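Question thread 4412

I'm putting together a teaching handout and wanted feedback from people who do this every day. The idea is simple: show students a protein as raw sequence, then show them the structure tokens that encode its fold, then repeat with a second protein so they can compare. Below is the first pair exactly as I plan to print it.
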Amino acid sequence: MNHPAWTEIAAMVRGAGAAAMALFLCGCATTPMRSLRVERYRPDASGRAPWTWNESAAGVAAPAASAAVVPAPAGSVSASSATNAAAMIRRFKAGDRIRIYLRDIPAREDISDQIDESGQINLPLLGVVKVEGMSTSEVEDYLEKKYVEDGFYKRITVIVLADDEEYFVQGEVNRPGRYPLGRGRTLLQAIADAGGYTDYANRKNVEIIRADEVQVYNCVKIEQRAADDPLIKPGDIVRVRRRIAPWE
């Protein structure tokens, strides 16, 4: 048997539930439901790649993409590097001694001179020429052009060196003497410049004298590529010894 009090309580609960449902439905009709969505962003500057919840209806902006870092082109040279390289080029100044070799002409000439206080030297046919502030390659280009343009030669090769940019060959070679030091000159090339060996040369006993140091080389092995061909440096003396025994 139902007690009147319990019946009244049940009716009140049903009424409250119906009212709550009505209020909920009314709210849904007047306020749009906001959706949530998930977006994956690219790694940020710290390398993180999180899943981020973004409330679209609230207008929350996605994180701004980090600016791309463009690397410098491969092989590019900075302005400071170019400046340092230019500073390393040797340029003539007053008081420097200079050697000039005129080649590919009927009578080749070797000229040794000292740059005067005005930065000038005296050359055959051309007379006084200013070379102060110029590099060796610049003097070479200028003199070759000058000799041809002034009508002295149709073709000429000019080699310009500072006085310390030369080497000497002595002993059993066909043309011992002083020679200009070209770029990358090796021992075998130096001997070839001096006309090669005489019949009495000991090719297994060739010296390079550099300051107070003497190095002995076996040029037979160098020619056979069994040993390295050493580079000649400014001021070096190459001395080819004479054979004592026929089998040397």
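The second pair follows. I'd like the answer to focus on this one:
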Amino acid sequence: MTNPAYTVIGNAQSRAARVLWMLEELELPYEHVGVKPHASEVNQVNPSGKVPVLLVDGAPITDSTAIMQFLTDRHGKFTHAAGTLERARQDALTQLVLDEFDAVLWVAARHSFILPEPQRVPAVKESLRWEFTRNQSLFVRRMGDAPFLMGEAMTVPDIVLTHCGIWARAAKFEITEPKLQDYLGRMMQRPALRKALKAG
């Protein structure tokens, strides 16, 4: 079967980095349009103006997690099979990372530079930092001794969590748990991630 034509819309400073990283891990060819949210290239295919968008033979898919899971299901790598107990656990872990880390960082970003200035509440960031630290302490209790979150093989939640770690450092949200620090240090050495982050 011929590989479909993939185009990623969104710059590597956004959640589009997750999709770029997954495509690099899958060793799939793709085109990249490295634009910011609400650029004309985005608005044409996603009325919300949000990135990333993946065009699959011209048809758009939105949301970084949905895109990554689509790619892993389609190409049969970096995921457990749908309908299995392992897949249910994988999906639950992905949602946990999104709830406990991604959501906190997103609220902080909204009150830093996304919302109109009169609607920002900068003081909320101290509460968010407290929550981020607490969530780390709870999350590491779920981490085993295997190299990846689901065991011996990397899956979607590994990419989401590592990207949140990169985002946290840029936003000055401290990674306080040594086990999480070690995990992120290993993950950030992956060549596919380094290539994705250079995409611009």
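Top answer:
Good format. For the second protein you could add a caption like this: The CA atoms of residues 93 and 167 lie 19 Å apart. Residues 85-190 form a domain with the Glutathione S-transferase Yfyf (Class Pi); Chain A, domain 2 fold (CATH 1.20.1050.10).
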